[in-house]
Amino acid sequence: MDLPRNTSKWDRRVNAAAGRLRASDRVVDAEGARPTSLIPAGLAAEDVVAAEALIRVASINHPFEATLLVRRHQGGDTAYFRLLVRSDAEGVQSDLIEDTALTDPLTALPGRGVLSDQIRTAIEKSTPEQSVAVILLGIDRFRAVNEARGYHGGDELLQWLGWTLQRRVGDTDFVGRLGGDEFVVIATGLRGEDDAYAFADALRACMTTREAAAGPANGVTLSAGVAVGDANRSPDELLLEADKALAVAKRDGRDRTQLYDARLGHITQQRINADERLRRALEAGAIDNNYQPILETATGTIVAMETLVRLADDNQLPLRPFEILRAAKDTGLLGQVDMHVLTQACTTIAHWATFAPELVLTLNLHTKQFRDPKLTMAVAHATKRVGLSTENLGFEVDQSILADMNEAFEITRRLQGMGVKIYIEAFQGSAGAIKKVKDLRPDGVKLDRLLVAALDEPWGSALVEPIVRALVEDDIEVTAVGVATHAQLDQLREMGCHRVQGYLFAPMLSGLERTAGGARLFVFVPFPR
Question: Which DSSP string do the residues of 383-414 spell out, in sequence order?
Fold first, then answer.
């Protein structure tokens, strides 16, 4: 029999064939037995509750045998055990069973034996709006690391990575070690594949920090395989899919994130086609930029344009910007694509500056490129070549850069010192992130479009307004992205949001359209009143 699911967040199942038993030192008569007398010291509080319930069940049902996955606090560390409870006509007994599969002795992280239970629990908590992702992370060329540094050096790297991942993930999600060079993260509360992909990328970015360069991770990269699921998936399915995705990531060049497409049951042909289309487009010079206006909320004046890359290679269905970015990372062409986009954007904005000298053009920059020490040189070269002031240029970077504030501060100040503006995009507004933004002092923050969409809900204003006001009160410029309705615009204006962007005002347009009719565009982009 199973215990009720609400007794603990750990999955509990009857194990009729439980082996690995040690002689119990506590056997009591079922009648009058106090459950607490059978519970080992040091268990987590919620596991004590679950264990008490299990013992009560055993006391009135015999013969009975079941195991419960529990956590035990030992000297500041947490270890995983199986608590075996069984009963017969003579009474109830309990045993705490050590299992090396439950806790990895090198990193002190949960081991493979805990995974199915953890994934199942995460799946049960998922909703149609909030998915669960299994992310497998593998150290690239780990054998070469061992050969170069010795096994002690390899162990230091594993311990450092385990500690770093646990610190990045925090208490809300799960980090474990599969064995060898592989770690697993179970992430919950995600809004689909894009969220999962971005989260995995942010985890891999721990290898590019200053802390990593100064420690055992210097020169080491990670690959990631991601599987996203919901309540209809099983733990084994997600683990297998994440493992296949990781294999593809390593096969295709390493130092990348590979998403498994659960809908089709295999890494999709569409992804492969996107990679091929990107390669062809680069060779043919068929990568084009689209631009979407950003307007001042108070006046409706266009103050900036966001650059969104597209392929002009053929008559196939257009790839969305995030698909192009993903293909660029998959193929190792991210640097080439970014340079192409930067060069083209600088040429366009230099032309626009003749009739809109204060207009700023923003480009989306991947965190890997943001950290590239060659970025400032590339910006200086691209702007000088077309005679463009760097004050007309801005970069939009994901809030994952806030994970290493020292590094983010140094790079941001270096670019701002050149005149380049820095914006944090897809900002979700947690209290911790708001504090970090206030410390970093970027030129602005762009709200996640899902926050803007939430304004259509009765509770939306209560969610968004505190975020906007906290930033506005500290003189942080706020842009709302994805504004689609007049009601959203009215609420944002009332909150004090500085800028707005979305299809309510203008769609994405090509550089050619804007170059030919740029002056007209600045007059006729509609601004609802």
Answer: HHHHT--GGGEEEEEEGGGGGSHHHHHHHHHH
CB 245 within 8 A of CB 238: no
Alpha helix segments (H runs only) across 405-448: 405-418, 431-440
**498 and 476 in contact (C-beta within 8 Å)?**
no
In a domain, 529, yes or no: no
Domain annotation covers residue 272: no
Q: Which helix (H) or strand (E) holds 270?
A: helix 269-284
Query: Is residue 273 a part of any domain in this protein?
Result: no
287 and 202 share one domain: no
CB neighbours of residue 502 within 10 Å = 21
Query: To which H or E segment does residue 445 belong?
Result: strand 444-447
Task: Please write the tens of the pLDDT for every residue from 125-182.
Answer: 888 788 899 999 999 988 878 877 888 888 889 989 988 898 888 767 889 898 889 9
- Residue ending a domain, choose from 97, 126, 145: 97
CATH, residue 247: 3.30.70.270
Q: Over the stretch 295-310, which tens digit does the pLDDT of each residue have?
A: 999 988 889 999 887 7
- Identify the residue whose tokens are 């594993």: 158
Give the chain's domain count: 3
Q: Are strands 499-501 and 478-481 parallel, antiparallel or unpaired?
A: parallel
Q: Examine the domain organization and report whether 183 and 298 are in the same domain.
A: no
Q: Are residues 177 and 239 in the same domain?
A: yes
Residue 19's domain comprises: 5-97
Our CA dihedral for 324, 329, 333, 336, rounded to 10 degrees, sits at: 70
CA-to-CA separations, 326 to 51, 433, 508, in angstroms, rounded: 46, 25, 20
Find tokens 């480009």 and name the residue.
Answer: 363
Does any domain span residue 277? no
Residue 121: closest CA among 176, 84, 42: 176
Sign of the Cα pseudo-torsion (345, 347, 348, 349, in order): positive
Q: In the chain, how many H helices and how many E strands?
A: 17, 19
